[in-house]
Give the backbone structure.
Amino acid sequence: MRREDKEITEQYELDEIIKKAQVCRLAVSYRDMPYIVPLSFGYADGVLYFHSAPEGLKLLILRENPQACFEVEVDTRVVSGKLGCDWTMQYQSVIGFGEIQFIEDFQEKQQALLLIMGQYTDQEVLLNDETVSKVTLFKLNINTMTGKRSGY
C-alpha cells in the first residue's frame, strides 16, 4: 500500500469494518471482461457468504472462474475544501481476494442464510425449508485482505 499511514493492519479492525458494512461489491472476470456486482452478504471467520437466484450472469461467471475480489466501505463522508483539490473523502474500507465455493449442503445453506440475515438484524429469523432448498448460496473463502482508513 502506497500510504502506509492509512493502512489498517489489525485483523479485528478489518473484521469490524466488514461487519459494519451494508453492501459488499464482488468483482470477477469473465473471458477478459470485468464484472462487479453489489450484494447483501454475511461474514464469519474470514469467509463472506452470499445468496442468489438459481441462475444469472454472476453464477455463470463464478462457475467458470471462481477467483474473486471484494470491497466494502463504511463511514463515508465528503470533506469540502476551498479549492477543488482540497476536497477529500473520509472512509474506512477493506479489499480482499479469494475463491468462491458453492454451498450444497442443506444445513450449511441454512447457516449461511442466518449469517447473511445477521448482517442486517439482531432479530430472530425463521427459515422456510422450501426457500432454503431453492436459493443458491456461495461463499468467498478470503485468502488476503487489506484495509484503508482516511480522515479518522
Notes: The chain has four helices and eight strands. The radius of gyration is 17 Å. The chain has one domain: 4-150. The mean pLDDT is 93.
